Amino acid sequence: MRSARADDAGAISAVILAALRETNARDYSPDIIERVEKSFSPAAVSELMARRTMFVAMAAEQLVGTASLDGRVVRSVFVRPDVQGQGVGKRLIEEIERTARYRGVAVLAVPSSVTAEPFYARLGFTAVRDSYHGEERTIVMERSLTEPQDRDGS
Fold this sequence. Notes:
Layout: E1 2-3, H1 9-22, H2 30-37, H3 42-51, E2 53-59, E3 62-70, E4 73-79, H4 88-102, E5 107-113, H5 117-122, E6 126-133, E7 136-144
Antiparallel strand pairs: 1-2, 2-3, 3-4, 5-7, 6-7
Helix pairs in contact: 1-3
């Protein structure tokens, strides 16, 4: 786990696009996936890096995941499809939480895709409301950082 660097933009974009096309495509129409993809070109990722605190997960010297913190909002958590389910996303969220706590954030929010809602729920986030951008449903979820971190007994 490390902070994203400017030269990571292409690899971050590739991870996000792969996750959108392979994982999120189960829950969203091709039109929605295509629209969301435009927000994550390498140039767009570079712009996001300038505005957010972005982290990357590495495995065997390859970038396999990313997540960012924008104020109190978790953004753009994506893991390469071939390593999903191996704890990469959880480690990214733990890094986001450490950073947020250090900055004095009391409650983290995440605009979750339908696809990621079970993932965030397992990490202690609860749904607050639904949000729609056209037909694209997003579940706004929150998690208090003042409660004990350890919800699964580990």
